[in-house]
Write a structure and sequence with these properties.
alpha/beta, homodimer, 8-stranded mixed sheet, Cytidine Deaminase, domain 2
Chain lengths: 314, 314
């Protein structure tokens, strides 16, 4: 399932409105098929893995990160049917599909065909991997990641405005990889005017990943999709993962609206005493600040540290 | 030597103007004596270890974190002579004593008595353990540690001023332990008036550790030693380790004067968008901020993270 989850992660940011799923087909001790949801949402992970396995799918175990779909679409057959037709012996599934067209029907179909089904394996990681799809299904909006690249004292620039660079090349490369995992990137008017950010993915081999550019502003700007308030992210079709990159006012607006699900904090070992990374959050007590964030991962990137937090209350 | 360094650390903050030294006497496979500089500076670590070892010191190896002193004082004999008289076979020494009354003479005396001497073992850690003594010897001022307890975004209070508590009980207990390792604690006028801090050591068994209370201010205050500028720390007799606790103006004043040698950053997993932990440092370029701090240690304290940095340029 770990390998299937790694495959699922490959599609993150490029499959909306479809979920990014991973599938491994294992026959005896041999991996016979690997698949992940392709850009645009098709083929599905199971279809890709079955195509690779061919006749070797017969009697195999299918590890799938999300319940196989049960609904026939003009773009292809239901994956549950395809797995049955291929003759798999067993299915191991991380989570059931909340999409009401499936929602248990895929599992029922497999079981009715005599296939042994196990669910819940790797569930927590699978939920994180398709957080964008689940957020859209349950909350009607994209999964929002807020990125902050700061000094040890939480600043994003000197008092003069100078901000290039606080973090080092390793941290900046990682931040570009994160961009490739999001359908869209959002900045505020201040960042647009101060930095004219390109918001592209400057990594070898990933230059073609161009997330949509969203502007939080009450005035439109050429080449930018503009929304007037954080709540308007619900209207962004085809965006299941949104990366909020700056600046301090925009970050605070999303936090005040309780619309941040994940934090990426890149911190460089410098002290600046400059411009804070967050504008006023309007908190009236410290109690209200505690218990909101859970540390998920931390690592060094060169001499900088990355910390990843996720929403503690879901 | 690791054990001797741990013994040396016990005296930190209570031996000024003497260095806090550790000594282990090992005879064959048996530890026969352990000593560390006692509060006030006497007895020395070697004297304590020799008293414990008695006749078992004959033929032993002495592990000492600092070169044994070579000068007789009214308060006791020179440790080099005591080790020779006790008949030790070998001495392993981390660093030589920069005090001009010793500075190699202790090692010479041992060698002249036919004792095998090895130096430089555990040198980097030994320098950190007696950083206060070395700083006073070389720079004529105490070792300065700046403590900051902040949110993830570097704030020390809400906009309303509320600051209790950002970090949790484990981090606060650790900060109290750090107080016990310093001869004096300094705050600024703003912190004095806002918080009336007690600056005591609220840990079971350590309540008697009461570091001197220093105020950075142009006006005197009752029960406080007052200095007008960060540079005046050089005048604080009997203070080899100074802990700077707040607030943002005071921290910035010490950083601007390049008088901070060590950073203790306690960070709680909260976002505040409130009062920054550091006032303006007056930096004119980011280049000037980089390369100053080296990460020495990091650990979790409950749900908070402690990071310890040290001056990278010495």
């Amino acid at each position: 399932m770990g390998a299937a989850l790694a495959l699922a992660a490959r599609g993150r940011g490029r499959t909306a409105p479809n979920p990014n799923v991973g599938c491994m087909l294992v026959n005896g001790s041999r991996v016979v098929g690997r698949g992940w949801t392709q850009p645009g949402g098709r083929p599905h992970a199971e279809a890709m893995a079955l195509a690779e396995a061919g006749a070797a799918a017969r009697g195999a175990i299918a590890y799938v990160t999300l319940e196989p779909c049960a609904h026939v679409s003009p773009r292809g057959p239901a994956c549950a049917s395809s797995l049955i037709d291929a003759g798999i012996a067993r299915a191991v599934i991380a989570i059931t599909d909340p999409d009401r067209r499936t929602n248990g029907k895929g599992i029922e179909a497999l079981q009715a065909a005599g296939i042994d089904v196990t669910t819940g394996v790797g569930e927590a990681d699978a939920r994180r991997t398709i957080a964008g799809f689940l957020r859209r299904q349950a909350w009607g909006r994209p999964q929002v990641t807020l990125k902050l690249a700061t000094s040890l004292d939480g600043c994003i620039a000197l008092a003069s405005g100078e901000s290039r660079w606080i973090t080092g090349p390793e941290a900046r490369a990682h931040a570009h990889l994160e961009r490739a995992r999001h359908e869209a990137i959002l900045v505020g008017r201040g960042t647009l005017e101060a930095d004219s950010p390109r918001l592209d993915v400057r990594l070898p081999g990933l230059e073609d990943r161009a997330p949509r550019r969203i502007l939080l502003s009450t005035r439109a700007a050429e080449d930018w999709t503009t929304i007037a308030a954080p709540e308007d992210i619900a209207t962004l079709d085809g965006v299941d993962h949104l990366l909020v990159e700056g600046g301090a006012q925009t970050a605070a607006a999303f936090l005040r609206a309780d619309l941040v699900d994940r934090l990426l904090l890149y911190r460089a070992p410098v002290l600046l005493g400059g411009k804070p990374g967050l504008a006023d959050l309007g908190l009236t007590s410290l109690d209200a600040a505690h218990g909101r964030w859970r540390l998920l991962d931390t690592r060094m990137l060169g001499s900088d540290r990355l910390e990843v937090y996720e929403r503690a209350r879901t």
